[in-house]
Amino acid sequence: MKDKNFVPYHPKQEPKYDVSISARAVKDIFKDAADFYTRPVACPGGFKADVFFIDGLVSGGDIADYVLKPLMSATTEANSADELVEELRRSEIYAANGRLVPDMDKLCFFLVNGFAVVVVEGAANALAFETRTGEKRSISAPNVENTVKGSKDAFVETIRSNTSLVRRHLRTPELRIKEKIVGRQTLTNVSVLYIEGITNEAMVEELEKKLDDIDVDGVLTMAVLNEYLFERRSLFPKLIYTERTDRFCFELMGGRPGILVDGMPVGFLVPATLALIMKTPEDRSENNIVASCLRLLRYAALILTLLLPGVYLAVRGFHSEMIPEVLLNSILESKQKVASGTPFEVISLLLCFELLQEAGLRMPQNIGQTIGVIGGLVVGTAAVEANIISPVVLVVVALAGVAGYTLPNQDFSNAVRVWRFIIVLAAWGFGLLGVQLACLLLLMSLCAMESLNVPFLMPFTTADPSRIIGNMAVRPVGKEKLREKELQTNNKRSRK
Predict the structure, then answer these.
(1) Hey, how many other C-beta atoms are within 10 angstroms of the C-beta on 222?
(2) What is the 3-state secondary structure of the chain?
(3) How far is CA 185 from CA 73, 112, 213, 481, in A?
């Protein structure tokens, strides 16, 4: 029977250290580690022990007060080292979190996770006591998902701090947190969170199974989860990330399971859908009429940033008769001194826009935005004055670029940028027919996408107009009583 005192170990990890627990074996494993420390201790009763810890991961004061002091002043009637270990675990040492360690693999695991390990000479088992340092990044306001009226506490890199933030928003005892260890070298703590009685248990079990099947050296970026949790790859995200705790908790109440990864200052939500991507937490902070108008504006901006350059190129090159005469004369007049063709103008200006955007992201934060704005103005103005680019193309590309910034999710925005180029190339070759074929291909790929057996385009794939309207608009809180049908939640009713 599995001992509940043991921290879960990575299922793919084979035993590395096939030796019995001893102080010499521990010192040999960490022999070249400058931050590894050993403290010999003479225990009452003539027993000898060694306390091991890694500097920087533990609090020296906690080790001195809660481990070393009780260990040196312990009174024991133990006749063997094993009896002493059991006494120390049950009654002598004051540390709140004490674990029995049966082998060298788990002993090393505890050491690198901020535990102080006590090895008594001659004992078969060791003891591990949690003495983690309190040094960590303090909880602050979100940096990417700006909030005006919402909560100001964003996720940090420490997973236990993140679970405490979730607990402060969701005080229900039904909140469940299941931990997995992922990564052969990083041994990263990945936690699955859900509300029992609401979230579909089958969805949680499938998510846990997928996490167990991940076999990589390390989980240091979110790309690992996005690729390994979902077999079929796609440009569009199947995993939504957020740094806002209120949004994370709101979706947990809606029936979605969430994922927290130690070392990542974001929370992940599955399954990802287009309706979820286009929502923002601020929708619930505004009047529902204002929020509905803003959400509809985001959908309009999505269509604009995706299609505007391609449609302009197709109409200008193949279907000039569709342009009003006055506007066509203005376009032709501005085009007279421009030597390059319209396809070159559109594609080159889109590439320049992408270069400026990447440069702004890579520059230091305080000057990145300035470089992007000034660079765009200088390059665009200079290109027009040099008769390299026509003013109309500059307006079209700039409008499409600005519309893309309204999309709430960066991964989704990046996928839209790639498809924008695909549509432009199709328009260059086949006109509006190419735009239609590219849009059809995009729609087919989106219809084929699923995340934990939930369609990506849910609920736009349903025949219920009320559900479609309900996701494109924001209903009053009092009228939103049902959770999403496709999530198959155990409790259909919602009192959000």
Answers:
(1) 17
(2) CCCCCCCCCCCCCCCCCCCCCCHHHHHHHCCCCCCEEEEEEECHHHCEEEEEEEECCECHHHHHHHHHHHHHCCCCCCCCHHHHHHHHHHHHCCCCCEEEECCHHHHHHHHCCCEEEEEECCCCCEEEEECECCCCCCCCCCCCCCCCCCCCCECCCCHHHHHHHHHHHCCCCCEEEEEEEECCCCCEEEEEEEECCCCCHHHHHHHHHHHHCCCCCCCCCHHHHHHHCCCCCCCCCCCEEECEHHHHHHHHHCCCCEEEECCCCCEEECCCCHHHHCCCHHHHCCCHHHHHHHHHHHHHHHHHHHHHHHHHHHHHHHCHHHCCHHHHHHHHHHHCCCCCCHHHHHHHHHHHHHHHHHHHHHCCHHHHHHHHHHHHHHHHHHHHHCCCCCHHHHHHHHHHHHHHCCCCCHHHHHHHHHHHHHHHHHHHHHCHHHHHHHHHHHHHHHHHCEECCEECCCCCCCCCHHHHHHHHCCCCHHHCCECCHHHCCCCCECCC
(3) 38, 11, 16, 46
Residue numbers of the chain with a pLDDT score lower than 70 = 1-15, 135, 231-232, 363-378, 478, 492-496
CB 182 within 8 A of CB 214: yes
Q: Alpha-carbon torsion 307, 310, 311, 312, what sign?
A: positive
Spatial distance between the Cα atoms of 166 and 164, rounded to a whole number of angstroms:
5
User: Cβ distance 131 to 27 under 8 Å?
Assistant: no
Q: Give per-residue pLDDT as tens, 404-441.
A: 888 888 889 999 999 999 999 999 999 899 999 999 99
Per-residue model confidence as pLDDT tens digits over 247-286: 999 899 988 999 999 989 999 999 889 989 998 888 877 7
CB contact at 8 A, 53 and 111? yes
Structure tokens at 264: 């990542």
Asked if 206 and 194 count as a contact pair (C-beta separation under 8 A), the reply is no
